[in-house]
Amino acid sequence: MDRNALFAHVSFTRDLSPPIIAALSSHAYEQTVERGSIITLEGEPASAMYLLYSGRIKVVRHSIEGREHILHLVEANDHFNTVPMFREPRCPATSEALVSSQLLAIPREHIRQVAQQYPELALAILGEFANRLHSLVGLIENLALHTVNGRLARLLLQQASLAEHNPQLAPLTQAEMAAHIGSVREMVGRALKAFDAQGLIRLDRGMIDIIDPQGLAAQAEL
């Protein structure tokens, strides 16, 4: 793992000075997790925050009935489990590896010590919290104001944009799409068939090709 490259790309560490990066790295440890591995469990003690060097992680919450909702898909050079570093030390969500992934874990007590020593780090993390809050407000708006078809169309366009920058990105399953947009797999399947019939996408053995991005954007109300 190239730690310097990772710190240079993560949003809240890329502009930090070398002494802060060195301090963060001094107690960090590397982990490799396989597909299906649980990294954090909702409600359990939070011992570290994580930077993702390679792979893909889903961050989810579960309802009482066991229904899953994806809060965030973590890609390379992103981070997760950051909030409990500075509040109640319990994981706010469950995180699971979607593929084999390499992580850099920074222990909770260590990152708090470095933030006290270097206010620049605290301000950078505060800015990141503001960005995440903005994203969550957008998620709430999407769930409250858009139909399942609209939410799915938006997700398909977002995933297509990500795939342009990362051709090796694994496509989401219908179950993962449903968890991401707050629906169920059966409704996602019906919506995909409707998009296919309208000529917006082409379904081919589980793969989805976007044929009419403008039409899909209209469905997404973008």
From TrEMBL:
Keyword Transcription regulation among record annotations: yes
GO molecular function term, any single one: DNA-binding transcription factor activity
UniProt xrefs under Gene3D superfamilies: Jelly Rolls, Winged helix-like DNA-binding domain superfamily/Winged helix DNA-binding domain
Domain Cyclic nucleotide-binding: 12-132
Keywords assigned by UniProt, alphabetized: DNA-binding, Transcription, Transcription regulation
Presence of keyword rRNA processing: no
Ranges where the HTH crp-type domain occurs: 146-214
Any coiled-coil regions, as ranges: none
Family annotation (InterPro entries): cNMP-bd_dom (IPR000595), cNMP-bd_dom_sf (IPR018490), Env_Response_Regulators (IPR050397), HTH_CRP (IPR012318), RmlC-like_jellyroll (IPR014710), WH-like_DNA-bd_sf (IPR036388), WH_DNA-bd_sf (IPR036390)
Gene Ontology cellular component annotations, sorted alphabetically: cytosol
Protein name from the UniProt record: Crp/Fnr family transcriptional regulator
